[in-house]
């Protein structure tokens, strides 16, 4: 009989083997589906970039051909949503410019093309709140030109001499050439490491349901004359049925996972269904590698049967674990730290992920040793039979005992790492805008700024608004060692516009207002840095003003009466105060006058940060939930498998009168105590790894540690205890037939 037919026969007649195979297949399917999804994420961002590259200036394309157009990209906001505004102007024949897919025509001056979502938003609001910013709509932007389905995009046409100062001269639209999102690439790599391992632990736990029975069966075959090659082929066939079936199932359901992933927002919006198409050159090796890993683990697990079949059938005591296992964790940590400190390219990031994988893998060496040490303590200090039974189990089979908590340990490690990164990222959020939250402002050169202010005020008057734009010149206060910029406005204007507490400072002689003491000895007023300026009037007062927020970069105010007439400012800030009721109208008035210049506000500066933090929180929650579910399932299956492995022992104890309650308590103790100790260690290591990963993103910022770091340890121990509760139903089955031979 062939090995494959023998495996099919065993699966058909043995219910426990069949159950183990089904669970193994499910575990392989989960692992395969997760890896296919996570690996596809960077490719999905690249597909997004291919569609939306035309929206960006073509930096680096100066020598690619004769310039045919100007292009500028800015961010606009309406109803709390970000709008991508692309201003273009043809330098010659607009028909000769190659248009990106999804854009049907080049807008002429005064015309605009809107994406469907933006057009719907504009139709649902008065023109003074949105549509008047862009001109006459003459077409729509198709889905092929959008980063994500609901992206808000306006393509606005101009004359060449009417383009904003930030415009870039280029030979045409940049079509294709999108780049992968570096942050999502890093998160996907971390996800592969921290979710693949719990999935494989689930597979290993499923196979342990019949470990003792399979080992005895194979040992009997060896003693009956079966060669090692025949035994290996039997195990390979039996495992391959489950592993290959699971890998194919995972590949089959991966499109469903990809479809679900399209509903998870990232970087502003959701995804197109075609974004997650993984190249076959990447997908096929993954599908092949997953069952190959399972088969390799199954074959390596046959070493004892091959070497000592009598020892396998007799269940001889295993050799004690050596202390050198403890060295694996610090060595992996040193490698990870070195890679983090030297990573500066894509290969460096791969080595960082390799270091992370080594740290995760070292748990398989350190965990059993710690489990054995805990068992030794239990056997020496026990006061109750359940503690003695738990200690003997931990001491005699630390690898099997640790397997029940391995997934939980990895989930705690992941949670601690995430709870180190998230508060640290959130601590960096903030804005150093010198203007109050309600003020909209933009920067322009002197003459252009004055023109924008005039046109804005004309539009505000037409819309019936009381607010008015103010053109604020910028000068430089120079001295012998350097200089600093100062905004030219009187005290009353500063009180309305900037984030300085001007109360009590107004009403006196013209002065300089600064958040710190200032020595005016040798200070001159100039239009530029390192420029010989005009001296300040003798006895110019300096008022030290308190800032309203500690996130503000220092801003200095100089009264217009102190600026010499010979100093003409080269740069102007146009600022307009708003109210919650008229904010959209004021922005429309300013945007229509600015013609594509970047309009800033503190809310706008914080919006992108809030979106990024929301993306990170969302991905973190999804990852932690997946890791927790996988770890809980593997712990429950491992505990049930532990009972099945020791059915003879438990049956004999029950037949001798040992209460099931005592045995259940012993099983919960042997599951919970190693998990508690290991999760504390995993939490500490997760914090250190999180600090290392954070340094890749923020070089100089400090890590923020919060009391929430204890949550993964507490929850991990709770999950281990809860999963161990499945031992009671398994023991009740043994009690029903305590001396049954399976």
Automatic annotation (TrEMBL):
Residues annotated as domain ABC3 transporter permease C-terminal: 192-302, 623-734
Parts of the chain that traverse the membrane: 21-44, 186-210, 231-258, 278-302, 323-343, 349-379, 400-422, 619-640, 675-697, 709-731
Record-level GO cellular component terms: plasma membrane
Keyword Disulfide bond in record: no
Keywords recorded for this protein, A-Z: Cell membrane, Membrane, Transmembrane, Transmembrane helix
Subcellular localization: Cell membrane
Topological category with respect to the lipid bilayer: Multi-pass membrane protein
InterPro entries registered for this protein in UniProt: ABC3_permease_C
Taxonomic superkingdom: Bacteria
Protein's name in the database: ABC transporter permease
Organism of this sequence: Prauserella cavernicola
The organism's taxonomic lineage, starting at the top: Bacteria, Bacillati, Actinomycetota, Actinomycetes, Pseudonocardiales
